[in-house]
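ENTRY TYPE: paired fold submission
RECORD: A
CONTENT: sequence, then structure tokens
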Amino acid sequence: MSRLAAAQKPGAGVPAYLRWVNRGLGRRAAAAAYVLRLSPNQVTLLSGILSLAGMLVLVLAPPSPAAAIGASALLLGGYALDSADGQLARLTGSGSVAGEWLDHVVDAARLPLFHIAVLVFLVQAGQPPVFVSTAAAFALLSSVWFFAQTLAEKLAPGGEAPRPDAPVWLSFAKLPYDVGVTYLIVATSAWMPVFLTAYVALFLFTAGVAALSLVRKYRALRAGVRTPVA
């Protein structure tokens, strides 16, 4: 744990849940994986399996508080392991381009697939088309934004620049579109009005932030400058 604590990514400007909760959970999972002699790629695959299990519970289990909390816990567990694989790779010095590629492939599938699971859940619950359409739009948005961010990191001269001077409040400002918050609201899915209100609010906020981010990245790439991560 002490070695992992000394090999953390900078936290400045990172969304609050990821910065103060998920990375800590991932650190403990990475330590456990190290003791169990798991490889980073195995942790990546376990992350994907947990996430998929959470989506299946959301879609297949009869609606109940227990199913809602269980689905949320599995999704958050997959998210924690998504942080653990990179930490384990740094701890063991076993990071590789292939491992990074695998991690991105799992992420690229997980993000839109979650919103498709929400779409199926809403259809099964007989919700109006406007909410079902929101889930479909969220799936598209998450896929486009993830691809745009990943590609910008590769195309920007020298990669995206870190923001060590980012203020603490920025982490809290980014909290609404932290995927951990999205997974947390799944715990309210047994109470449909609460879930729908939170889910639609997250979509609208994320869409606004994504639009600003895409414009900023396009302008930075057009000008040939590095864009800050935060």
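RECORD: B
CONTENT: sequence, then structure tokens
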Amino acid sequence: MNPASDPAAAQHRWLTDGEQRVWRAYMHATTLLEDHLDRQLQRDAGMPHIYYGLLVGLAEAPRRRLRMTELAMKSKITRSRLSHAIARLEKNGWVRREDCPSDKRGQFAVLTEEGLDVLKRTAPGHVSAVRQAMFDRLTPEQQKALGEIMEIVAEGLQPNEAGADLPWLR
């Protein structure tokens, strides 16, 4: 749409041509990167990238366990999507759920030994895919700049007010 041809659009702050190029390049690259990583993980471990992220989150947690709400927050996904993913990971024997003794409604997700083994086998190929797709293509200065930029964007999107509409609260 050409905002110049729409009088009602004059009140909107449209992207400049340069901003539009950056935005489209970002969207194109992130879509391709996510697809690249999903295909690598499906081929090597039979799991999508989101499941790998959940296993990593649990592996990094104390005693390899997190409350489901905390895992949803860490993973930036809805509780419903997390519940479905954990059910699939349970079916594979990679995760188990445990009731929370201090909260009858709460549950923990716990990484099993089998899940840890899958993660250990899968991690080298995944790291190689990430390195090949991203870091090997960037100079150290570009890597630093990209990291700083993504931190600024993420910080701006992470609301702090009570009642914020965040995926893990849905």
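NOTES ON RECORD B: Residues 127 and 155 are 25 Å apart (CA to CA). The chain has six helices and three strands.
STATUS: closed
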